[in-house]
Amino acid sequence: MVFNFAGQRPTNLGVTDGKLTPCPGTPNCVCSQSDRAAEQVEPLPPVAIADLKQVIEKMERTTIIEATDNYLYAEFKSQLMGYVDDVEFYLDTAANVIQVRSASRLGKSDLGVNRKRVEAIRTTLAG
Predict the structure, then answer these.
(1) Residue 18 contacts by C-beta under 8 Å, 6 or more apart in sequence?
(2) What is the pLDDT of residue 2?
């Protein structure tokens, strides 16, 4: 028996009216545009998406799915079971920040992995 821990790629990702998709209300998602305290994470400082892409590409088990001048979508796969997290970045020129959303596809708890990933990226960018 083969288990698929990757799940299906969401079809509702991207930017709509300057907003990333809201978190689903489970404790395995963080988003800089959320009003719910448990999901809230600070946006990243403004950098070129190309520079952000270079940081993401150096991280382990990462696949860039889409990259434009103002949006980047990457999949991060866990080492042990191959769970996939969907991570999006949106260069919000109106707010002069990079909005970020990081969410696990499967399960409810992520043991803080999505929040830790965003903070690791923030630290690397501050470098």
Answers:
(1) 90, 92, 94
(2) 53
**Residue-number span of the structural domain to which 109 is assigned:** 26-126
Amino acid at 18: G
Integer Cα distance of 73 and 56 in angstroms: 10
DSSP 8-state secondary structure symbol assigned to residue 118: H
Tell me what pLDDT residue 127 has. 85
Quote the number of domains for the chain: 1
- Among residues 4, 9, 21, 36, the alpha carbon closest in space to that of 100 is found at 21
60-65 long-range contacts (CB < 8 A, ≥24 apart) are 65/9
Which CATH number fits the domain that encloses residue 87? 3.30.310
83 lies in some domain: yes
Taking only the tens place, the pLDDT of each residue in 54-107 is: 999 999 999 999 999 999 999 999 988 889 999 999 999 999 999 999 999 998
